[in-house]
Amino acid sequence: MKIVPDTSAVIDGRVSERVDDGTYDGADVLVPEAVVGELESQANDGRDTGWEGLSELQRLAELADGGVIDLQYVGRRPSAGETKGAHEGDIDALIRDIAAERSATLLTSDVVQAEVAKAKGLRVEFVEAEVRGSGGLIIEQFFDDQTMSVHLKTDTKPKAKRGAIGEMHYQTIGEEPTDETTMKEWADDIVNSARSSPDGFIELSEPGMDIVQFRDYRIAVARPPFADGIEITAVRPIVKTNLDDYEFADELRDRLAERQRGVLISGSPGAGKSTFAQAVAEFLNDNDYAVKTMEKPRDLQVGPDITQYTALGGDMAKTADSLLLVRPDYTIYDEVRKTEDFSVFSDMRLAGVGMVGVVHATRAIDALQRLVGRVELGMIPQVVDTVVYIEDGEVHTVYDVSTEVKVPEGLFAEDLARPVIQIRDFETGRPQYEIYTFNRQVVTVPLGEEKDDKESGVSRLAKQEIEREIRSIARGHVEVDLKGQNRAVVYVEEDDISYVIGKGGGRISDVEDRLGIDIDVRTHDEKPSTSGQHAGATSGGQSGASGSTGGQAGEGAVVTPEVTSRHVVIRMDGHVGETVEVRADDQYLFTATVSRGGDIQVSRGSAIAEELENAIDRKQQISVVPA
To answer: What value does the mean pLDDT take over residues 14-23?
Structure first.
């Protein structure tokens, strides 16, 4: 009797089992090298199935040594490509070919393998696959009604997060550390139960990490070498809510049901974002909207009418393409984190799908700012028009997001009008923030702050921009004193007064026109608070390529820059690889790293080069100090 076992039969130990019960006594067992190669690959990936299969081969070798069976290894070893394509049937095809060539019976626990072999006219013995795992969840013993998550790791005491939402405490729940044998048993049981039970599935399986969804538990099982020990983290929702349980429930219902919207649900980890997202999904579904979800992993607890999608082929962009064909009214995206996530979210919203995204953020405005730089500024209100911030399981803040062409708050010149994103408090309708471009920068300016807080919002921004503009033309020290949102006093050296003002006031008028602020130019001696003590001081703003400030007078080495047709070059022989600050009369210009050639090269035409050349033209002392 000739038997050719495939990989599934070897892993399940079906050959030695049949030898033990006498069925295969004296049989010729022909093990394909393809089976050995696949088992070796699985064992190298840290998969238990590979090690179990290799243990079965060792048992067969012992039976052969005892004369109970005749064991032979036949066929060729599979190529790397065939091993990688095992899930597509490449290894199974090699095994079937051997069974056909040797006129042997194919032993398998793989139903697809069995059916294909029968179709090819082979003799097949099919045995049910071994049921692995308990079919339940052993670690469920650690959960009670107030347990949100359980954290287990080799050689540590079991811990859990317990309490009401907003009052969670990370606490030890076991007296004895969990040994490696127990951790391996629990980890194997979780993964195997998820594979075999209709209550679970494997969301993600990579060498060293499995993500399992089992009933309402999301479980991450990490193993070496990915982790430094076996670790199991099991999470479940401890409360299920509906929209009526939250503040602004009526207003939010009306807003969501009015039309498809772009909504960001933000908050810190554990604040209750996903719980609120589930409530929104159920509300929309109950109000005749077709709702789908995009999750990786899928752990939102929603009703059966809401289909939950994960990353198709590991790519949410492919999931989005599929969903656009399904054309849902609303999609819940849990969670939006990486740049590609924001891109997918934006594309679907601009295609007309209502989108609700879950975002980690410590403030409501931070969720919206994560779109800046990822989405064109003017498109942000079309992508997101509502931001809901969750704190301690409650709706803490709701923002309405819109756009308007206007002069930004705090500026007054009509020619400074531009598209401004306005963020208003949903409850009061009062503006809270404005986002717009100012002097080629995207800025977020808080509104409604205390009158005496001169360093906040647009005032702080204006002060920095005024100082930068004046420093680019003044030869000495510059200080700025704001006298309101549309007026400032600039203090410069006496020798710089005429230079900053320019002929007929033309130079300072240009600066005023660019910034939309009236500027009064005075000498340092006219500033009451300093009274001549300005020498060597640094101002409140920043300049150049870094935020570093100037140092003490006399520091560093004095250098003579060389101006070529394309670069301004500063020779720094003996300082290769060092990071240094370049200064003019002890005022900071920029930070640079000395090249391998022993110099610093600044491309002419850049803002830094212009400042450096202006300093050279004014015969200022150029020095270099360690950064």
So the answer is: 89
